[in-house]
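To make this tangible, we now present a fold written out as C-alpha cells:
***
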Amino acid sequence: MYDFAAEPGNNELTVNEGEIITITNPDVGGGWLEGRNIKGERGLVPTDYVEILPSDGKDQFSCGNSVADQAFLDSLSASTARASSSAASNNHQVGSGNDPWSAWSASKSGNWESSEGWGAQPEGAGAQRSTNTPNNWDTAFGHPQAYQGPATGDDDDWDEDWDGPKSSSYFKDSESADAGGSQRGNSRASSSSMKIPLNKFPGFAKPGTEQYLLAKQLAKPKEKIPIIVGDYGPMWVYPTSTFDCVVADPRKGSKMYGLKSYIEYQLTPTNTNRSVNHRYKHFDWLYERLLVKFGSAIPIPSLPDKQVTGRFEEEFIKMRMERLQAWMTRMCRHPVISESEVFQQFLNFRDEKEWKTGKRKAEKDELAGVMIFSTMEPEAPDLDLVEIEQKCEAVGKFTKAMDDGVKELLTVGQEHWKRCTGPLPKEYQKIGKALQSLATVFSSSGYQGETDLNDAITEAGKTYEEIASLVAEQPKKDLHFLMECNHEYKGFLGCFPDIIGTHKGAIEKVKESDKLVATSKITPQDKQNMVKRVSTMSYALQAEMNHFHSNRIYDYNSVIRLYLEQQVQFYETIAEKLRQALSRFPVM
C-alpha cells in the first residue's frame, strides 16, 4: 500500500506502492512479515504496509499481531471464531452514518464485535464541506479520528524513511466551512467510501478484546502505567513536574534540488529548552503511533488538516501552527501520553540516526491497541461486573450528551460568525451611509443655522461605519477561541464511541464466560483472569474520565471567561464611540 525503503544489513525488502509480492512468512513477529518480489529477492516488510489480496474471498494469511496463545483463542465458540476470521480476513467497509454515536446507542447486547456503522458526519450548517470531500472523512475502524493512509497526489511527499501522509482540504471563510475554521474535512480519493485494511494498525488487528482478556499469561512489560485512587476516584499518576511544548518559527524548506517544498516547525519543550524541527508529516506519524498505542483507552484528538493547495500562504501557516500548538499542549498535559517513550523521543531526539531508530522501535511496538491495558496496574481491589457496567454506561451517557451540546454550540457559533462577518456589519454600514447622505441633503438647504447638526449627523454616520468594522473583526477576538475549544472537544468526544465499544465488548465477553466454562472452552481460572482484566479496563476508563473532566472544567472556565471579557470590552468600546457621537449634537 505504501513505499518502503529497506535499510542495509536489516534483512529488509524494498517495496513500492502497488507492487505485488508473495508472502513467505506472514508473521515474523514485531509487526513484520517476510516476502519475495518478482525478482526472487526476499526480505522483511512492515505488516501494516501491505494489504493481503483475497483468494476466493478470503485472505491466505492474517497480518495482524500474533496472539499470545493462538491455539487457545481458536478453541473459542464457533460463532466467535467465525467473527474473528471474518474481521481479520476482510477489509472493513467504512460506513457513512449520520452520527458516530448511532451504532453505540443502538447496538444490541452481545453484538459488540461489529465495527461498522460508526461513520461520523458533522451536524448543522457548520458541517458542510467542499464538494470534493467524501462523506467518510473522519472514520476508520470505528475510530472517528483514525489515520486513513495516504491520498493520491499528495502535495507533501514523504521522504525515503516513511511514506504515509493524509490529505485534506483547508477551509477559509467560505459558507461550506465552520466559523473560524472549526470543522475538519479530509479531501480523499474520489470514491465516497473506501476500504480500510484491518491490519493497517497492529492494535486493531482483532475485532474484540480477546487478545487481552483471553491470553493465558500476559508478559510483564517494562513500561508500567499505574492507576491510583484519589479524592475523585481512580486517576492517572501525574508527573512531579509538567511541561509544555512551544511550536514556533515556521520555515519553508525544500528537497530534490528545490522541486519539492515543505514547511518545518520548531518545537521547544519547556523542560529542556532544546529545540527540534518537525514537518507536518512527522506530527502525522506521531498522531498515528499514539492512536495505535493508546487509542483503545485514551482519546487521541486528530491533527489539523493537511493542505493540498495554498499551503504556503501566511494565513494557513498561522492557523496550522496555532492548531499544532493546541494539539501539542493537549498531549503534554496528559500524564500518560506526555511520559510515553514515543512522545518523549519525538521531542528529544538528537540527530537523524536517533530519530529513525526511535521511529522504527515505535512502529514495532506490540503493546498497542487492547494490549495497552496489560501495562496498567490499578492500586485498588477488583471491581464486580455490575459496577463495571454501570461505570461504562455513565461514561457513555455523559459523553454522548456532551457531544450533542458541543455540536449545538458549534452550529450556533458558526451561524453567529457568519452574521457578524456578513449581514450585521452591512446593516451598520447602511445606517452610517444613510445618516451621512441625510447630512449631505441637509447641507444643501442653504440654511445657516444647521452646520453643527449636519456635522454631528455626519460623524454619527462615520461612527456606525466604524462599528461595522468592529463587529466584523470581533469574532476573531472571542468567538474564535470558543469555537476552537469546542472543536477540540468534538474531536475528543468522537473517540469515545469506539472506546466505550471496546469496554462493552469486554463486559459481554465476561458475561459469556460461564457458558465457555460449562462447555470446557475455558477454565475457571481463565474466567477469573477475565474478570480481573476487565476490572483493570474499567479503572483505566475512570482514570481517563477524571482527567477529561478536570481538563474540561479548566478549559471551559478559561475560554468562556475570555469570551465574556472580550464581549464586555467590545460593547464598552461601542458604547464609548456612541457617547462621543452623541456629545457632538447641540443641546436644544
Summary: The domain at 389-584 is CATH 1.20.1270.60 (Substrate Binding Domain Of Dnak; Chain:A; Domain 2).
